[in-house]
Amino acid sequence: MSWQAIGIFDSGVGGLTVLREIIRKLPQEDTVYFGDTARVPYGTKSPETVTRYAVEIAGFLLKRDIKLLVVACNTASAVALSALKRQLSIPVVGVIEPGARRAVEVTRSGRIGVIGTAGTIRSSAYTRAIKRLEPRAEVLTQACPLFVPLAEEGWTDNLVARLTAQSYLKDLKEAAVDTLVLGCTHYPLLKPLISEVMGPGVTLVDSAEETARTVAKILGDKKLLRPEAEKGNHHYYVSDIPAGFIRVGNRFLGGRLGDVYQVSLDDENGDSR
Ligand code: DGL
Questions:
Q1: What's the gap in Å between 41 CA and the centre of ligand 1?
Q2: Looking at the domain that runs over 5-94+210-262, which CATH code has it been given?
């Protein structure tokens, strides 16, 4: 079973930030990525709809014979993880728990900020995960929906991005959080700007890095890692035409995106077209 791939999905291109960390940490592993580009964004949709999408995608990836599923999308992790865990017999890793664990490890004051999509923030999934680990923690949250289109547009360091960040982060800054969880796939691209706006005393927690660590640990514990001398292959599937995904994805992944195939999830076999 160790020769099987790691499955990973997101609402679109953002999950490539999580894939990038997994490839960096586990270069020997094959991966199969699915980006639901026809139905993005998830951050504005109801938990019921996002859960239905997530279950459909998991079914598609299971047919690709995966040994572990990574829910790279924070919104899907926030609302659909328990449904996926109930239905799947392989390990399912979301991004919330690893990010929360890291935040609790690094905070000194116990005042932790969390930013994410409207859906992630509304779910309170990060707050619950942090409080489970450290009941005395004070968690302050802020939805930052405009960060998603800014990151996709490549507007990560211009005046519009700066004003947006200053406006979204004002309350968290005033509340003097010492740790800020980047609770959305896209936010790592805005890390330098967010860090600058929050100031040097605030530690940013990248859920993508922590998730890659968790994946490595689970596969290691279960003896499911491929030998280190191997070099993994990476396959990409999307639900809309691939052009936009390829253009933005190369930036998110750092220019290493391979062939991208469009698939229809309605097609029972999930075959590529
Ligand atoms: N991938 C989503 C997340 O991490 C952001 C984009 C969307 O709203 O679908 O929450």
A1: 6
A2: 3.40.50.1860
